[in-house]
UniProtKB/TrEMBL annotation:
CDD domains: ABC_6TM_MsbA_like
Cellular compartment(s): Cell membrane
Membrane topology: Multi-pass membrane protein
Organism listed in the record: Alteromonas pelagimontana
Protein name as it appears in the record: Lipid A export permease/ATP-binding protein MsbA
GO cellular component terms listed in the entry, alphabetical order: plasma membrane
Cited InterPro entries: AAA+_ATPase, ABC1_TM_dom, ABC1_TM_sf, ABC_transporter-like_ATP-bd, ABC_transporter-like_CS, ABC_transpr_lipidA, P-loop_NTPase, Type_1_exporter
């Protein structure tokens, strides 16, 4: 009941992926049906084998069978290969295509999408859900076509050999199918409970082990023990339920099978039947009934498999249906002058009620430096995110060279900015390639070395095995925070963009390195419009304009000495950082 049934449109969309593989698909079906046909043929020879050959001591037939058996199985192997190979081939293509589509989607989606979606989930869509689509639907298809054909074939042979005995199966078969369906449903529910309770057990252990010191300090052992005991026992109970279901189902199916056998025996014992029935017919019909159980069981549960695949499909399609970053602007510029202005900008993050920025207005002429100061959470980084159009304001406008940011072509717009933020992202590549990221075609090795020099990257290269060509490890794990930041600064230097955004760019540096880099950054700011989010006030004393932000609003604006004289918020912050001496 809890299963969602997927609409036809979902299925149609999925089959869209198969459209290019019609031939492969046809070959797969031929393989699967051929496989079942050989199987059916082989088992249909049981009756003549018993009656004609063994019963009548006809060695001809046995000889023939001896010759035929190996080629038959070779043929079966070939069909099997064709069917499963083609299915895997199609599956692997579908997985690859979905992965590529997801990947491309991820890097075109707006920042707000990634704010709201956990990384783990997005990764598992690419790695796991896509596999699941192919596996589950491949398995479903294999079952329907191959086992379906086998069941039809077997039933045909069975009825041909003795319709009277076969009728028994038609009565008993559905009963078994119902039981199997019921049991497998229960299995699924219990299995899910086991999974959940296993998760509970794991997280209880994790918490207790991670918080070991807290547990010790607060004498929490007893509480933790009891809590764990409950989860532990629940898990055990679920495991037992599964075992009981399994035992009961096996037994009940066996009892039903025995009833079927009893009925068959009874019918066989009637006078007119015993005349007619040969040993071969009797044995082979019973044999067919046993053979039918497995494919029937698979067919009754094929819908689950199919639903699993469709659920994974939905998870993939959901993301593919998300809208890309809006990019409707047409203005492209080689290099802007760098006149910036915010006009009454109000911005609320998607899904939030309180605006992060309220009525923000300020402007910076080309070449000027604007410093943003304020408590953490006041909205400074949000201002820089609006500049690069990671988000768009709901009210007001941000202008670059008197043109609204919305009117720029995104790529062109972003190439006007060099951004260094407190969170440095490095790719698992060489330092040189990380510095040149995004401008690799345009720059020479010499440019990279120069940028590395200015940003004081060269200083720590000596400790690394391959200098500039050392691999930084995933997200630069091999480097310290300060070293990563210096690489980011070198990257910004190399970009040579007309607008520079430094969002606490030197926060991870010690005072000594900060002073060194400050020189470099100041040189960089000279020829550019710069928005600097300062975390140390000493670095922005020379700014053309200092803006104090508080709870998304500008509360003070002016030059360093003006603001100090005013004795307002800035002066207060200043006193906090420098003490009375400042
Ligand atoms: P600052 O850079 O001044 O420390 P931010 O601009 O990062 O502050 O944040 C301003 C406010 O917006 C904070 O209240 C913060 O919680 C909120 N905020 C920041 N980023 C997001 C986001 N991606 N989604 C929702 N709210 C955010
Ligand atoms: Mg910030």
């Amino acid at each position: 009941m809890q299963q969602i049934d997927y609409s036809a449109s979902q299925l149609r969309r999925f089959t869209g992926y198969l459209r290019d593989y019609k031939l492969a698909f046809a070959l797969a079906v031929v393989g699967m049906i051929g496989y079942s046909a050989v199987d059916t043929y082989v088992v249909s020879q049981l009756q003549p084998l018993i009656d004609e050959s063994l019963g009548n001591s006809d060695h001809e037939y046995l000889r023939l069978a001896a010759y035929a058996i190996v080629p038959l199985f070779l043929l079966r192997g070939l069909f099997n290969f064709l069917g499963t190979y083609m299915l895997s081939w199609i599956g692997s293509r579908v997985v690859m295509r979905m992965r590529q589509q997801l990947f491309e989607k991820y890097i075109h989606l707006p920042v707000s999408f990634h704010d709201n979606n956990a990384v783990g989930g997005l990764i598992s869509k690419v790695t796991y859900d896509t596999e699941q689509v192919a596996n589950a639907s491949g398995k479903a298809l294999l079952t329907i076509v191959r086992e379906g054909a086998f069941v039809i074939g077997l039933l045909g042979v069975m009825f041909y050999q003795s319709w009277e005995l076969s009728l028994v199966f038609l009565v008993i078969g559905p009963v078994v199918a119902v039981i199997v369906a019921f049991v497998s449903k229960r299995f699924r529910i219990v299995s899910r409970n086991i999974q959940l309770s296993m998760g509970n057990v794991t997280s209880a252990v994790e918490q207790a082990v991670k918080g070991h010191k807290v547990v010790l300090m607060f004498g929490g052992q007893k509480i933790e023990e009891d809590r764990f005991a409950k989860k532990n026992n629940f898990n055990r109970q679920q495991t037992m339920k599964l075992a009981v279901t399994q035992i009961l189902s096996v037994s009940s199916i066996q009892v039903i099978a025995s009833i079927a056998l009893a009925v068959v025996l009874f019918i066989a014992s009637t006078p007119q039947m015993i005349e007619e029935l040969t040993a071969g017919v009797f044995i082979s019909v019973v044999f067919y009934m046993v053979l039918l159980l497995k494919p029937l069981k698979q067919l009754t549960t094929v819908n689950n498999e199919f639903q699993k695949g469709m659920a994974a499909c939905t998870s993939v399609f959901e993301v593919l249906d998300e809208n890309d970053e809006p990019d409707n602007g047409t203005v492209t510029k080689q290099r802007v002058k760098g006149n910036l202005s915010f006009e009454n900008v109000t911005f609320t993050y998607p899904g939030k009620n309180i605006p992060a920025l309220k009525n923000i207005s300020f402007s910076a002429k080309a070449g000027e430096t604007v410093a943003l100061v304020g408590r953490s959470g006041s909205g400074k980084s949000t201002i820089s995110s609006l500049l690069t159009r990671f988000y768009s304001p709901q009210q007001g406008e941000v202008l670059l060279d008197d043109i609204s940011l919305e009117d720029y072509d995104l790529k062109s717009l972003r190439s006007q900015f060099a951004l260094v933020s407190q969170h440095v992202t490095l790719f698992n590549d060489t330092i040189a390639n990380n510095i040149a990221y995004g401008s690799l075609e345009k720059v020479s090795r010499k440019d990279i070395e120069q940028a590395a020099d200015i940003a004081h990257v060269t200083e720590f290269l000596a400790q690394l095995p391959d200098g500039l060509d050392s691999i930084v490890g995933e997200n630069g794990l091999m480097l310290s925070g300060g070293q990563r930041q210096r690489i980011a600064i070198a990257r910004a230097i190399l970009t040579n963009a007309p607008v520079l955004i430094l969002d606490e760019a030197t926060s991870a540096l010690d005072t000594e390195s900060e002073r060194l880099i400050q020189d470099a950054l100041e040189k960089l700011q000279k020829e550019r419009t710069s928005i600097v989010v300062a975390h140390r006030l000493s670095t922005i004393e020379n700014a053309d304009q200092i803006i104090v932000v508080e709870q998304g609003q500008i509360i003070e604006k002016g030059k360093h000495h003006e603001l100090l004289e005013k004795q307002g918020h800035y002066a207060q912050l200043h006193t906090l950082q420098f003490g009375d001496a400042g």
